[in-house]
């Protein structure tokens, strides 16, 4: 599918501290080192394949546009420096749902950038794509992600027991969701 056929257009989404802009292949030169520095296996219960930076950038260039996902850079407004990335995937327009994921530069964590990025992305998904629910999966041991999702009124829907091998130990994963009606008025 070409970009012209993609029904989702990616506007720049502007918040107080950050704005979201569509990710480009070259952005991986910033985000992939953040991913590696953030302990990749802690971020996913799926097997993580560590690759070379050039391989990651080239794979992103070759990847065809897809109407079931979208990736954005989280950019600090004051100096236009990228501080993170955020994405939606597994978009299901029939059920009006999508999964979300996020990553912030380790040097920029705990400054509210992921929180504001999630609010901007949720607003886009609920208002522009008319979704009813967004959801995220995180390791039970990822206290920062669990706290972030709870702070935005995400509800814990499920516990995937002993689902995530991390540091030689099996941990639970949590699935959180936020419904459109629960989001309205968030800021």
Write structural notes for this entry.
The chain has 187 residues and is an alpha+beta fold. The protein has a domain at 3-132: 3-Layer(aba) Sandwich (Aminopeptidase), CATH 3.40.630. The protein has six helices and eight strands; from the N terminus they run ββαααβββαβαββα. It has helices at residues 28-37, 40-43, 53-62, 113-128, 143-151, 180-183; strands at 13-14, 18-22, 70-76, 82-92, 97-104, 133-139, 155-166, 169-179. Strands 1-2-3-4-5-6-8-7 form an eight-stranded mixed beta sheet, sandwiched between helices. Helix 1 packs across helix 3 (53-62). Residues 1-7 have low confidence and may be disordered.
Order of helices and strands: EEHHHEEEHEHEEH
CATH superfamily of the domain at 3-132: Gcn5-related N-acetyltransferase (GNAT)
Number of strand segments: 8
Looking at CATH, which topology of the domain at 3-132 would you report? Aminopeptidase
Unreliable sequence segments:
1-7
- Please, how many helices? 6
How much β-strand is present in the residues?
25-35%
CATH architecture heading of the domain at 3-132: 3-Layer(aba) Sandwich
Distance between the amino and carboxyl termini: 35 Å
Instruction: Specify the overall morphology.
Output: globular
C-alpha Rg (nearest Å): 16 Å
Sheet with the most strands: spatial strand order: 1-2-3-4-5-6-8-7
Class by helix and strand content?
alpha+beta
CATH class of the domain at 3-132: Alpha Beta
């Amino acid at each position: 599918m070409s970009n012209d056929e993609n029904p989702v257009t990616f506007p720049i989404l502007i918040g107080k501290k950050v704005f979201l802009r569509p990710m480009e292949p070259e952005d991986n030169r910033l985000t992939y080192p953040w991913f590696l520095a953030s302990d990749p296996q802690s971020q996913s219960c799926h097997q993580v394949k560590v690759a070379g930076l050039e391989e990651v950038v080239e794979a992103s260039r070759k990847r065809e546009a897809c109407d079931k996902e979208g990736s954005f850079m989280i950019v600090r407004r004051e100096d236009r420096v990228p501080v993170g990335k955020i994405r939606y995937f597994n978009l299901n327009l029939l059920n009006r749902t999508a999964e979300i994921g996020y990553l912030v530069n380790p040097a920029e964590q705990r400054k509210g950038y992921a929180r504001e990025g999630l609010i901007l992305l949720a607003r886009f998904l609920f208002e522009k794509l008319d979704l009813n629910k967004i959801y995220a999966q995180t390791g039970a041991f990822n206290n920062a992600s669990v706290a972030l999702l709870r702070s935005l009124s995400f509800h814990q829907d499920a516990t995937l027991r002993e689902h995530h091998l991390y540091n030689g130990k099996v941990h639970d994963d949590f699935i959180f969701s936020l419904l459109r009606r629960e989001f309205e008025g968030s800021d």
